[in-house]
Please model this.
Amino acid sequence: MRLLLDTHILLWVTLKPDLLPSSLRARLLDPEHQIILSAVNAWEMSIKHHAGKLPEAAPLLTDFPAVAASLGAEVLNIMPAHAIRAEALDWAHRDPFDRMLVAQALEEGLRLVTLDESVTSYPQAPILR
Model:
């Protein structure tokens, strides 16, 4: 299974692994699963870090490709098809980062790993908790 990490999951995996539920940690460590990071993760962390809301993200932003490599993860870029899919999603939830991650998961056939209730509220989102 290909698993796209929500940004908070990426932060927990790399900086605060004790926050991950043990069942989720086991799934992420399962060699049968491919971890996927998104350009959206870097974009969200950089915006929030710059605004002073995510100071702990600095080491992840210094060399995002190295972070991906340390996790054995592929990095997914944002493509026009992702943007078109994001526009078609229900607009009740307006967070652009969440919308794009859901759109990427749908468009690429990925499972989005998140514990964020606002993301899990998308009825069509392929979520893994």
